[in-house]
Amino acid sequence: MKLFKKVVSVAAASAMAMSLLSGCGSSAAPSDTYKIGSIGPATGDGAAYGTCVKNSIQIAVDEINESGGINGKKIEYKFEDDELNAEKAVNAYNTLKDWGMQFLLGSVTSASSIAVSEKTKEDNMFQLTPSGSAADCVKYENVFRVCFSDPNQGIASADYIADNGLAKKIGIIYNSSDVYSSGIYQKFAEEAAVKGLEIVSAEAFNADNKTDFSVQIQKAKDNGAELVFLPIYYQEASLVLSQAATMDYSPKFFGCDGLDGLTAVKNFDASLAEGVMLLTPFAADATDDLTVNYVTKYKEKFGEVPNQFGADAYDAVYAVKAAIEKESITPDMSVSDICEKMKKAMTEIEVAGLTGTITWDASGEPTKEPKAVVIENGSYKSMQ
Amino acid sequence: MSFLTYFINGLSLGSIYAIIALGYTMVYGIAKMLNFAHGDFIMVGCYVVFTVVSTMGLNPLVGIAASIVICTLLGIITEKVAYKPLRNAGSPLAVLITAIGVSYFLENAALLIFGADTKAFTSVIKWEGVILANGALKIQGVTIITIAISLVILAVLQTFIYKTKAGQAMLAVSEDKGAASLMGIDVNKTISLTFAIGSSLAAIAGVLMCSAYPSLTPYTGAMPGIKAFVAAVLGGIGSIPGAMIGGLILGIIEILGKTYVSSQLSDAIVFGILVIVLIVKPTGILGKNIQEKV
Amino acid sequence: MTMKKIQDKYITYGMVVIAYVLCEILMRTGVMTSHIKGLLVPVCYYAIVAVGLNLCVGILGELSLGHAGFMCVGAYTSALFSFSMKEVLPTVPRFIIALFIGVAFSALFGFLIGIPVLRLKGDYLAIVTLAFGEIIKNVFNSVYLGLDDKGLHFSLKDMASMGMDPSGKILVNGAQGITGTPSDANFTIAAFLLLASLFIVQNLIDSRDGRAIMAIRDNRIAAESNGINITKYKMSAFTISAAIAGIAGVLFSHNISTLTATSQYFGYNASILILVYVVLGGIGNIRGSVIAAMVLYLLPELLRGLSDYRMLIYSIVLIVMMLFNWAPKAREFREKHFAFLKKRKEARQ
């Protein structure tokens, strides 16, 4: 035991020393490239989202670099794993800072993003989260986001259901351990009351119990819900749909952007998703050139169909590009100067991206149109 | 009537816990080690079936066979490489930690090979199930088959352990390794065999679990693995019928708790009941009470 | 107490102090990267909770798989206090009171949970601690707490059922937890608290009470027949162990601004991770826990360069370390070939 401790302490000490030294040279010379960093879960439960963001930023960065970079300067890109853990996200942020990051596109999930924003605020580093949707994510003025906020989606969904008279009796199945899902649920419930929708059942599940939904479905069924609102991600939604089918329950299903990706689940019986409605800014099988280009490239390179997390991240890169061009930011500026200029530029640019045409205000919230789509014959159809 | 519906739903979930717990308790009862990687063996089994059936387009039976073979081999290899060297380490915790290492390894290897994306598993059971009371009640095919298979496994295991030489050797090893080897039992072989059986049961459990809940990620096995462990303890460590009963009870409690108390606090309810059962009966439902001696 | 034991104790303290001074120097001179700087506080609190768990596993001899739950209690109660007193109290007294609250509550939980848990034995005890850890996590995850003119509002279901005034302040928002806890923790405080925890545990071990606890571990029946009050000593060791986990929780919640009761921080996985520190460092070996916590927390961070293969390599290293450290064959091998390194005999164990 003693010996082991010695071996380990020597190894640890030398590892620490090495990492200390290796950190030395990195931030010295002024950079000749734009350095974009990103943080998200590449391992662990949220790996599907983090990986998609990681890959999508890579695609956008490659595209920009191939066409000559921004103002003739190339982009360098680095992604760090946070294991869906806010504490690890801060570690990842510090790693990226040592690397010389100037723009942070992250973190992918809300809790991590909020934790990191405390640090970016301290350092005055520009932060644009592709998919951190909780209200608190953008509470500092150096933080912007590409996705809709949770409250926004909750309100928009309730409005859409009420205004189009889709149903009167609503059942909800949400993930109470997830910031995104419980955030949407809260606002949806408030807005539904205003709009005169009756919520007949609101049942939760959590991260440790996300395979069996029989109770939640049965309760919606027993209480006569005509429409089941699913403010959850597509992985769980695919299970909800297949279990509802085996229970012979077929209400209308309505979801938010988290449901995007449903039809792309490998081997999923698409007939189960028939008639599912969702409010999403992005649809992987849309036929506009931009989406086709992105999805084709993604499939070629990574063999999977990207989801809306990736689309938001892709747009984030182009937003940064537009802002850099707007304020003629050069890579040799200090992080803080870049941030100041970016803050100003973000409110002035307009990005025509995969998730629609986006503008930002100083609060960091994006303005873009959510599209209501319905799944028909395995692909999305616009509803309006 | 609605109570019955929920009860049957609980039975479906419980049957899955039960079949996982059978494999768990096998290793746990005989080798006296908590194989935290058992849930991940299940995940590996599912990916094998997925690859064979959905990617290569072969018959599901081929997939199941392949999955049993691969899981069995995986179990034997894991035992040889990671667990056996620690058998006489002095503390049972050493091997527990290595099992966690194996669990991380399998999850991350699956993540690298298959990607993080959810895969939809095609159920290998096509039977719709039984409809009772003019359609008001429905017992799913997969539930009936899972319970039937669990019972078959239960019977086979019981016969094997109590009626065959190898089974008796297992019992002897679980009682006292030293004495067993003095009686001429090859302890290493016996434990290898235990792992082989436990892992092949994991493959079967995996196929049935993914048929009932057709979603597959590298982390699919982790939580059911823990729940099955809870079920095994609830039923009494080392008792094979106990594992089955524990699994069914756990599933029913979970569903009824979600239904009648709170869907948010379902874990708290399940674990709360576990605590109460163990306080009332500290060795689980069918566990043996061993008197401590000086 | 022999000279050796005293010496051994001071080596542990000295190690922490030297590491602290070294890190401070590196930080002040600007040599240390921000990455490493950011890791210092987490390393300290994981070391603290590992020391606390070692008291339970190594000294008391009972396997607990729920220590992350006690960390959760400490983190939530202290963060709740700091968050609501953010504008009222200055940093120093606020943190001291928060620390006190966090430790008191986790000790209370340790005591209450200890009553049923310590009646059980072995694996049954372990599973019940796991169960309590999961219950704590699950309940904290569902808590909604708000404050408005009419007073405190509480719900275990959702925001709406609290019936809050819109102008009120939401303190705990269910799964979203507590957002905006002031970052009061820093490396100096963390290192000090690590030293304090070490001091508490080391002194307990060396005391009469500590020997009684170890006697229970080694032979309960013999201890009992020698007139040792089993329940009292078991309970006090378990409660202190929980309180130390609470210290770690306080540091945790005051280090990052978001606190959520999710599995990656407070689930059974997190508890097991802490157990890994204890077992790898040596069961009952307090210094080993500190070193193992440091090494194993830093390892995946230092492997960041490997990107995709990081966690895979980490798992392999973990298995290899366990085999190297614990396997009887490996021990023989080490004794044969590295005997020259092994000068001193183990003081304890």
Draw up the topology in text.
The complex is a heterotrimer of chains A (384), B (294) and C (349).
Chain A: H1 2-24, E1 34-40, H2 47-66, E2 75-81, H3 86-99, E3 103-106, H4 110-123, E4 126-129, E5 143-145, H5 150-163, E6 169-175, H6 179-195, E7 198-205, H7 214-222, E8 227-230, H8 234-246, E9 252-255, E10 277-280, H9 289-302, H10 308-326, H11 335-346, E11 350-353, E12 356-360, E13 366-367, E14 371-376, E15 379-382
Parallel strand pairs in A: 1-2, 1-3, 3-4, 4-5, 6-7, 6-8, 8-9, 9-10
Antiparallel strand pairs in A: 10-14, 11-12, 12-13, 14-15
Helix pairs in contact in A: 2-10, 3-4, 5-6, 10-11
Chain B: H1 2-31, H2 38-55, H3 60-83, H4 92-114, E1 119-120, E2 129-132, E3 137-140, H5 141-163, H6 165-175, H7 177-182, H8 187-212, E4 215-216, H9 222-235, H10 240-260, H11 266-280
Antiparallel strand pairs in B: 1-4, 2-3
Helix pairs in contact in B: 1-5, 1-8, 1-9, 1-10, 2-3, 2-4, 2-8, 2-9, 3-8, 5-6, 6-8, 9-10, 10-11
Chain C: H1 3-28, H2 34-59, H3 67-84, H4 91-117, H5 122-141, E1 144-148, E2 151-155, E3 169-173, E4 178-179, H6 187-206, H7 208-218, H8 220-225, H9 230-253, E5 258-259, H10 263-266, H11 268-281, H12 286-302, H13 310-326, H14 328-337
Antiparallel strand pairs in C: 1-2, 1-3, 4-5
Helix pairs in contact in C: 1-6, 2-6, 2-9, 2-11, 2-12, 3-4, 3-5, 3-9, 4-9, 6-7, 7-9, 11-12
Question: Could you give a quick summary of the protein structure above?
Answer:
The complex is a heterotrimer of chains A (384), B (294) and C (349). Chain A is an alpha/beta fold and 384 residues long.
Percent in helix of chain A: 40-55%
Mind describing the biggest β-sheet of chain A? 7 strands, mixed
Rg over C-alpha atoms of chain A, rounded to the nearest angstrom: 22 Å
**Low-pLDDT runs of chain A:** 17-28
Number of domains of chain C: 1
Tally of contiguous helical segments of chain A = 11
User: Roughly what is the average pLDDT of chain A, rounded to an integer?
Assistant: 87
Q: Give the topology string of chain C: H per helix, E per strand.
A: HHHHHEEEEHHHHEHHHHH
Named CATH topology of chain C? ABC transporter involved in vitamin B12 uptake, BtuC
Shape of chain C: globular
Rg of chain C (C-alpha, Å)? 21 Å
Q: What is the CATH-assigned architecture of the largest domain in chain A? A: 3-Layer(aba) Sandwich
Please identify the top-level CATH class of chain C. Mainly Alpha
Secondary structure: number of strands of chain C? 5
Greatest interface and its participating residue counts: A-C, 62 and 63 residues
- The level of helicity of chain C is 55-70%
Distance between the termini of chain A: 70 Å
Structural class of chain C: mainly alpha
Give the DSSP E fraction of chain C (strand runs of 2 or more residues).
Answer: 5-15%
